[in-house]
Structures are given as structure tokens and as C-alpha cells.
Amino acid sequence: MKDYTLNTKCVQAGYTPGNGEPRQIPIVQSTTFKYDTSEDMGKLFDLEASGYFYTRLQNPTNDYVAAKIAALEGGTAAMLTSSGQAANFFALFNICEAGSHIVASSSIYGGTFNLISVTMAKMGISVTFVSPDCTEEELNAAFNENTRAVFGETIANPALTVLDIEKFAKAAHEHGVPLIVDNTFPTPVNCRPIEWGADIVTHSTTKYMDGHGAAVGGAIVDSGKFDWMAHADKYPGLCTPDESYHGITYAEKFGKEGAFITKCTSQLMRDLGCIQSPQHAFILNLGLESLHVRMPRHVENGQAVAEFLEKHPKVEFVNYPGLKSNKYYELAKKYMPNGGCGVVSFEIKGGREAAEKFMKNLKLAAIETHVADARTCCLNPATSTHRQMNDEQLLEAGIPAGLVRISCGLEDKTDLIADLEQALATVS
Question: At a CB cut-off of 8 Å and minimum separation 6, what does 102 contact?
Fold first, then answer.
């Protein structure tokens, strides 16, 4: 479907029914698959034939949906995982091992920051975090001989910083390593990182792609552009025989277009089993079919809310890349000319108590840890996710006690603004 627009791909990519076959993607609710002979099954294990033998590795329902996401991002291959965290871990660990080093933007989701800095450190993988605003010289200085990947987020959660994809891609490629970009917040509707130089794209499909808070999941998309064999010394897992899988050399057998995802499936999904359930993949596809319709409304509502809050006397500051006053405005316009997402963060005057009172009096916006949903939701980190910190520690971490993160849903923007206005009126 490469000749069709992204809007059409959201609806129809990934699955084309044959004569008399189901119009909707079928849910293959089976752990195993039957074959007539051991020889037939053996060809699957040897990767000499395509097919399925155990859902821990692959499932047809998942692959239909993964193919749609690959088409949306402009990649050559994709896979689904059980969560966005699993997607980021798999994407990194697929090319890293004990002794490897990662360069990562410091402005990323806290869970991913901890994954890289704590959990992967226990596996012998080190990291250097750099500011997304660093100069090219500072970025290049972060690389070591053992650097194997660069990681960042298109729009960081919850800081809402915008990654200069071209700058990070240029540095990564000059050092012979791929750039991995988490594109969860803008989705491919508003940004396609591969077009700007990214090699691998990840998603928490739990967010906008599903869009209804119904199914946890993640996705990895390979651009098919990074030449693994040109850097074979850095990536022995892809460029030398895999003795755990019949001596296959993935980069030789499947080329640039298929090596990364094939290894990720055959090796990591085999050993770790973080597969997305077929039921969740089915639900995800329902969300993808309307993604191109929903994202403009999320952006419209986010922009309207941000502009309202910026003018309100009880609001200290507003952080939203769509505001002309925002430091990332020009960068956001470059990479996301149609807008980024519907998430806005702002600080209420009066600190923690003011934020608590404001949120208590909201009627439409629900207090929850989720973002990127059809329904508006909000969170005060100081009283929830960062509750263990005092005000001084929060300030040091760049999280003011009065900070509120609001994820604007699909409601009418006038109703959202009215809800915010009445809640702010209760704050003295």
C-alpha cells in the first residue's frame, strides 16, 4: 500500500482479506500451530520457511497489526511487544550486550530512564545521558569505542522536550551506530522519524495508537536502512553465526530490511517471551483505524488548552511545544508541522496545595497515571508519581510542586476550557 496516503493506511494497511475471508483481522487465539510432518515444522525452526509454531514468538494477528504500523512509519519490518517498556528494552538489547554503551537523551520517560540507567546497567551495559539541547560537540563527546546505540524520544514524556532528530541521527551515523527513537506521543500521523534519519522507531501502543485505555502494548519498527554488515565488528549478534539458532547470520540471510526484527523475534522473543496477546493486537488495530482522525483533535484541544492556560493569572507557566513562547516551537514546527500531541504541562501558583485543590475540583478531567487517551486525564507528579520527594527535591528534579500534566482527550475544547476555568476559580 505504499502508494496510498497515511490516512488510508491507518484503515487498510497490514491485512488484505482474500475471497471469502474475514473482513476484519482474525483473532488467532491459539498458542500452537499444527503441521503434517516434522520436516515442515523443522523448516520453520531453521527459518527456511515462513509460518507459525508457537505464539510466544509470533502470531498471525500480531503480524497483521505490526505490518500496518511498519507501513505507517515507513519501515520494512515490525513486531509487537507486551508493552512500550518491552519495546524499548528489546530494541536496545537486540544490539547491546555486556560491555556495550548507549548514548541517550536525558529527557525521556522516567521508566525508560530507569530501564537504561539501572536495570540494563546490571546487565553490564553503560550509558551516557546528554541534554537534548546539547551542541554537536557535546553530543559527539558522549560516544565511546563501545557505543552501540543512540536513544531519544520525539516528544519526551512528561517534559515535552522535542528531539532534534537530524542532529542525533548525524552523530549516531558518524560513529557507525543506529538512532532509536520512541515516537509514542506524536505517532506517525504527526511525525515519521525515519524520514529524518532514525533507524529504529518504538512505540508504547498503549497510548494514542490504542487511544482508549483498553490494551497495553508496544511496537518496534525497523527502517531497513542501517547497514549492519558495514559495522560488523560492532554487531556480532547480527553479523556472525548465531549458534543458539542453527548458526544463522541474520544480516546475511535477511539483509538490512529484515535482520533486526528477525533476530529480535527469533532470539529475544524466544527467550524472554514479552509477546502482545492476539486479543490486545486486535483491539490495537481498532484504535489504529481511527488514529488519523483522532490525532488532529488531540492537537487542537492541546493547543486551545495551552493558549488558555498561558493567559490565566493563576498559572505560573505553561509547557507546550505548540506555543510560540516555547523554546521548542521552531523545532516542533520543523518535525511536526501539523502539531505534536495533546499533552500539556503547567504550574499553578500556590504550589502543591493549589494543585491538589485544582485537580480535586475538575469534573471532566480524571486523575490517573495514563496519558494519550480519548478521555482527558491529568496528574500532579508531586502528589502521586513523585510523592516521595519534598519540594526542594522536586525543584531540583525540574518538577515544581504545583506542576500538573494534562492529557487532552477528544471532548469539545470549550467544555475542557470551562472545566479548567471553574477548577482554577477554586484556587485562592
Answer: 92, 96, 116, 120, 125, 126, 127, 128, 147, 148, 149, 150, 151
Q: What is the DSSP string of 356-391?
A: HHHHHT-SSSEE-S--S-SS-EEE-GGGTTTTTS-H
- The string of pLDDT tens digits covering residues 61-88 is 999 999 999 999 999 999 999 999 999 9
Cell of 249: 547470520
pLDDT above 60: residue 308: yes
- Kindly indicate the confidence band of residue 151, based on its pLDDT and cuts at 50, 70 and 90: very high
Tell me the mean pLDDT in the region 114-125. Answer: 95
Cell of 142: 558522549
Q: Tell me if the bond preceding 26 is cis, omega within 30° of 0.
A: no
Q: How far apart are CA 262 and CA 242, in angstroms?
A: 12
Q: Are 383 and 376 in contact (CB under 8 A)?
A: no
Helical (H) or strand (E) element with 17:
none
Span between the terminal Cα atoms of the chain, in Å: 56
Distance CA 313, CA 348 (A): 9
Compute the distance between CA of residue 42 and CA of residue 146 in angstroms, rounded to an integer.
37
Mean pLDDT of the chain: 94
CB 24 within 8 A of CB 14: no
309 contacts 346 by C-beta, under 8 angstroms: yes
Distance CA 296, CA 316 (A): 27
- Kindly state the average pLDDT of the residues 143-147: 98
According to DSSP, the β-strands at 377-379 and 218-222 are unpaired
Q: Which domains does the chain have, with CATH numbers?
A: 6-287 (3.40.640.10), 293-425 (3.90.1150.10)
Q: Are 339 and 304 in contact (CB under 8 A)?
A: no
Report how far residue 289's alpha carbon sits from residue 12's, in angstroms, rounded to the nearest whole number: 8
DSSP state of 332: H
Cell 541534554, residue located: 131
Enter the C-alpha cell of residue 43. Answer: 523448516
**What is the pLDDT, as a whole number, of residue 382?**
75
Each residue's pLDDT tens digit, 309-342: 999 999 999 999 999 999 999 999 999 999 999 9
Sign of CA dihedral 392, 398, 403, 407: negative
pLDDT of residue 384: 74
CB 381 within 8 A of CB 395: no
Nearest alpha-carbon partner for 159 in 281, 327, 295: 327
Q: What does the pLDDT read at residue 394?
A: 63
Going by pLDDT thresholds of 50, 70 and 90, the confidence category of residue 380 is confident
